[in-house]
């Protein structure tokens, strides 16, 4: 993981790849398929050292307290140790809510760290003191929806950094069975295509599928200098224990199983059916 700007870890952002098309007569050329959604900064937030997003589970209600998704290594109290899981911790952390163009709309504040870990994944989920309805009424912003399906190789994605107010584009190159970095191990990580160009402050950015507009992963790390399995230089380990490094390639952690861990009212319940997040 890259270090956050205040000295913890940071992460990924994506650089876009531009497709070239050959011109054809209007009568012969098929109309290009328009994106299903427009991905912008609405629903994203800036942290003091990282990026994040205002998210909802598919069954969340407007009256539920809002949730902020970012990385485990962006936690204000410091990076969780390998094997450590933090739940229900008091927090007063504030987040700058952004408009669709990236301008600051105001501040939303957490009252709890519902969940944070760097074991198997790299995620922190904050509970806000404001409901989705209150945020919508006050700022005109709706949350991003968490996908409940596994990302698909080859799909177009965007990483939206609230910290830098910059959107990066590339595709899902594939998946790392295990991703090791320093003392941490992540499972089934998203590997980006080579167009990604990662800088500090993009940790915790939502990875948005451009077809559905839903969050499929959270941006978290890159092999920065070609080292093997060290801090800022993750390595892939396959089912046979073979280690591979991809210098300059970035990764994100899948989020599709997270909704299984939330019940009505956005209440975290790690005992729910289908919830595979590590427990304390």
SS content category? mainly beta
Number of helical regions: 1
Question: What top-tier CATH class of the largest domain fits best?
Answer: Mainly Beta
In angstroms, what is the radius of gyration?
Answer: 18 Å
Mean pLDDT: 89
* Low-confidence region ranges: 6-31
CATH architecture of the largest domain: Beta Barrel
Oligomeric assembly: single chain
| Gap between N and C termini | 23 Å
Order of helices and strands: EEEEEEEHEEEEEEEEEEE
The tally of structural domains comes to 2
Q: Report the principal-axis shape.
A: globular
Task: Tell me how many strands there are.
Answer: 18
- Biggest sheet record: 6 strands, antiparallel, barrel
Residue fraction in strands? 35-45%
CATH topology call of the largest domain: Thrombin, subunit H
Strand order of the largest sheet: 1-2-3-7-6-5
Describe the structure.
This protein is mainly beta and 280 residues long. It has two domains: 44-146 and 258-268, Thrombin, subunit H (Beta Barrel); 156-254, Thrombin, subunit H, CATH 2.40.10. The protein is built from one helix and 18 strands. It has a six-stranded antiparallel β-barrel. The protein has a six-stranded antiparallel beta barrel with strand order 9-10-11-16-13-12. It has a two-stranded antiparallel ribbon with strand order 17-18. The longest helix has 8 residues, at 132-139. The radius of gyration is 18 Å and the shape is globular. The two termini are 23 Å apart. Residues 6-31 have low confidence and may be disordered.
Brief overview:
With 280 residues, the chain is mostly beta strands.
Task: Lay out the secondary structure.
Layout lengths: L43 E3 L4 E6 L8 E6 L14 E6 L3 E5 L5 E14 L5 E9 H8 L4 E2 L10 E6 L4 E16 L2 E9 L13 E4 L5 E8 L12 E3 L5 E2 L5 E5 L7 E2 L3 E2 L12
Parallel strand pairs: 2-8
Antiparallel strand pairs: 1-2, 1-5, 2-3, 3-7, 4-6, 5-6, 6-7, 9-10, 9-12, 10-11, 10-14, 11-16, 12-13, 13-16, 14-15, 17-18
